[in-house]
Prior knowledge:
Layout: E1 2-7, E2 11-17, E3 23-30, H1 35-53, E4 59-63, E5 66-67, E6 74-75, H2 87-95, E7 99-103, H3 104-115, E8 123-129, E9 133-139, E10 142-144, H4 180-184, H5 186-197, H6 203-211, H7 215-239, E11 243-247, H8 256-264, E12 276-279, H9 286-292
Parallel strand pairs: 1-4, 4-7, 8-11, 11-12
Antiparallel strand pairs: 1-2, 2-3, 5-6, 8-9, 9-10
Helix pairs in contact: 1-2, 3-9, 5-7, 6-7, 7-8
Amino acid sequence: MRIGIDLGGTKIEAIAMGAHGETLARDRLATPTVYVDILTTLTGLVHEMESRFGKIPRVGIGTPGAISPATGLMKNAHNTALQGKPFAADMATRLGHEVRVANDADCFTLSEATDGAGADASGVFGVIVGTGTGGGLVIDRGLRRGKNGICGEWGHNQLPWLREDEWPGPPCNCGKTGCIETFLSGPGMARDHERATGEALPAVAISKGASAGDSDCIATLDRYYDRMARALASVINIFDPEVIVLGGGVSKIENIYTQVPQRWGNYVFSDRVATRLLPNHFGDASGVRGAAWLWPAESETS
């Protein structure tokens, strides 16, 4: 048995997971804004699970940001209380044993690669396209973190093959311009639509408008599909994964899964592209399940 925790900006979700991926219990609480309160809440969730099932030393936590291999402190946590804190060490101290921590996009990818949409693939790249744009890489069921702890952070590369009317690209919260995230996140799609039409619509309304035949919304999605094709082509050119799995709110746009593969062949350095683009299997639960899978099945002793 293991515990998985998805530490989000507004909510914390925890599950107790059995040896074969079955969810035995689930709890959800609001995320505190103060660091010490986050630690206390997480510790309480673990103890609550243990009150039902006994001691569970296998705890995994998915977080915004990542742990710096150089300092052990949280980095890239974007205005959360975790930034610059020794989060993994503090949780280990409170619980009295090792706690495994990974970026939330890494956890999403690990979940989908273990027993989700990419379970039959040896190479899986996972993408979250929601309020931001994150990514993760799993090879042979093993999560790749990288020497700098940032493997999969494709959202903060510049959008490939920028066109004249896209240059230099929108400003990103990382301090650069033209990052993939500024084009492919839900807010990025909304900003692009407003720049083109003067009308402020969220991504979900743009998708609905396109389905209803609105020409402006169709044009916005057309630009979006091509930009995602360019961005994912760069991933395929480097990692050549068997499967790319999408998550997050934008991943619910059904035409993505046909339109993007039809276009990425224009940018991939190959005579054909066999990579599959798939929707996620576990939805919003993929993050918390992936956190639990930070403790692989091989570590089970019972």
